[in-house]
Amino acid sequence: MQNDKLKNYLHLHLLVFIAGFTAIIGKLITLNAVSLVWYRMLIATVLMFVYIKIAKINISINRKAFFKLAIAGIIIALHWITFFGSIQVSNASIALAMFSTGAFFASFIEPIIYKRKIIAYEIVFGLIVVLGIYLIVRSEFRYIDGMILGVISAFLSSLFAVLNGKFLEEHSATKISFYEFISGVFFITLYIAFFGDGFNAYHFNVSLSDWFWLFVLASVCTAYAFIASVHVMRFISPYTVVLTYNLEPIYGIGLALILFPESETMSSSFYIGAFIILGVVLSNGILKNWKNFKKNKIKQTN
Fold first, then answer.
1. Radius of gyration of the chain (CA)
2. How would residue 261 be classed by pLDDT, with cut points 50, 70 and 90?
């Protein structure tokens, strides 16, 4: 039993490492952010469909639920486009540091979606996050475009995560992701056709290197990571999973420093700001867990 638990914890950290590696892949792929996300979601949708057929999962859904998932699919598509766009106009470290602000946004989005009061300490944590962002902006202002895209990406990611939390009350995670991916592909297809450069020869002129990294991104970092994270949550509490995933920027920034030292080495103020943000994110998770533990203990006593 203890060995099984250790095995699942190690598996979870592998998944977080894979999540951090996503930013590195975004730096290695030469396609623009919109095309990159279109290929990622298209390949992942096909792989997810194969998994659904093999596992014989029921994906029937009513029209109202489909439209809700379609909106979430557009949000995740925009999140990925702005995330990879942030990497392309700045670097992986900037994108990941800004992505860390997602927990700050979630603390304000969650009360709106779940109709609860904003917690006082979350406002304090939010102000500390702003301080971390200030230190990063002040020291790395040349990457301001990447920072703006990164913050937008973090906001969209938080909105998507909170909405998915509501969807999970009624639908399976597999069904949710499948319809979200299809909707994302459809949305980006329309954008490319009517507002982008269209599906010309350049769009389909993908190098062998890009094909390789696109397949890794769609299969390992998207389809596999999703299925595996659902499996892990059967043995490890959702809180532990979410808290561990907050380590993604640390893995990602560390990998970026090792693989691209020339373009990824930042000022000391950047790392201070980034670790302030990460420290707040982890502290927020720990404090929430402690409060939930106390609440459950009081219920059990009564």
1. 19
2. confident
